[in-house]
Amino acid sequence: MKLLIFSDFHFRGINPRSRIDNYYQSCLQKFEEILSLSKKCDSIISVGDFLDSPVVANTIVDDLLDRIDANKKDFYVLFGNHELQNYNLDASKATSLAHMIRRSKYVKHLEELEDKNIYIKGYDCSFENEYKLKEEGLVHNSEKKSISFIHQFVTIKPFIQSVAHVVAKDIKTNYDIIWNSHYHTQFDEVINGCRFINIGSTGRSSINEQHYPQVAIIDTDALELEKIKLKSAKKVEEIFDLEKYQELKENEKSIDNFIASLNSATWQASDLNSQIEIIGKEQKVDKQIIDYIKNKIKEIK
Q1: How many domains does the chain have?
Q2: CA-derived radius of gyration, the chain
Q3: pTM
Q4: Percent of the chain with pLDDT over 90
Q5: Is 259 helix (H, G, I), strand (E, B) or coil?
Q6: Pair (135, 160) in one structural domain
Q7: What pLDDT was estimated at residue 153?
Q8: Are 81 and 97 in contact (CB under 8 A)?
Q9: Residues of the chain whose pLDDT is less than 70?
Q10: Does 261 share its domain with 227?
Q11: CATH code of 29's domain
């Protein structure tokens, strides 16, 4: 069995703030290429967040279903966090993705797939799953080769502590492959005998997502994997304002440095804003950054 796999498309009709092209049309071009690549495959798998919100415009649903139905290949989907109502599958029956499953004979919820050689299980996004992954792991009872597809925040290295996530090495599993999505960073590593794969976001809705979009085709008989860069994907400079990105990074660095200087300062003035002005002048901090900090303090108050 050959499967074509992609993740995190985030179809939406309105341009993300960071995109300077027509995001929706760019996504459609990539999707049409994916469907064309799937001609040599048995099925397609979306590992969650095919859509950017629980309910999208009917015109988007129709555009996608017209193409899926014309392709005549089974199109398996996981529910990602963006497609769920309240992070709850039972509460998500009125969502656009649920409608697509009801409406098309080709769109199917990925729960379990199995043939003589492979066992496949899908795990939809869930509010508590990061904690369950760490506490319970991912374990199956099949004696066949096995792949799990999950839409949860799994990383190779520890992430920000305040953000719920689980590090791959902490997952107890007997799966041969754990295919990850939700976290938009690409990785492919074998850890404790299990191969953890994330091919990254197909849509690239954030300016931080400067990887090249790709899909993967896996032969489940031998667990052989081919990664394919999408020819229709535009170059980074064609979809993002890179000068603005650099300016944003420099501002973030200046703000971090300024906050660090505030944390180490000995406070003498009773007026917080006055003290910030004084330290800002001593540190030769740009006035825009000082005003930004003062406005944030005002919002908190």
Answers
A1: 2
A2: 23
A3: 0.82
A4: 72
A5: helix
A6: yes
A7: 95
A8: no
A9: 245-272, 275, 279, 282-285, 288, 292, 295-301
A10: no
A11: 3.60.21.10
Contacts (Cβ under 8 Å, ≥6 apart) of 223: 145, 147, 176, 177
Q: pLDDT tens, 26-44?
A: 999 999 999 999 999 999 9
At 142-163, the pLDDT tens digits run 999 999 999 999 999 998 887 8
Measuring CA to CA, how many Å separate 51 from each of 16, 19, 295? 13, 17, 35
Residues 200 and 287 in one domain: no
C-alpha distance from residue 34 to each of 83, 102, 159 (Å): 21, 22, 31
**Tokens coding 143:** 């004696």
Residue-level length of the chain: 301
CA 71 from chain centre, in angstroms, equals 25
Contact (CB, 8 A) for 68 and 106: yes
Residue with tokens 């729960």: 111
Same domain for 148 and 274, yes or no, is: no
Distance CA 267, CA 162 (A): 28
Do 152 and 270 fall into the same domain? no
Range of the domain at 270: 241-300
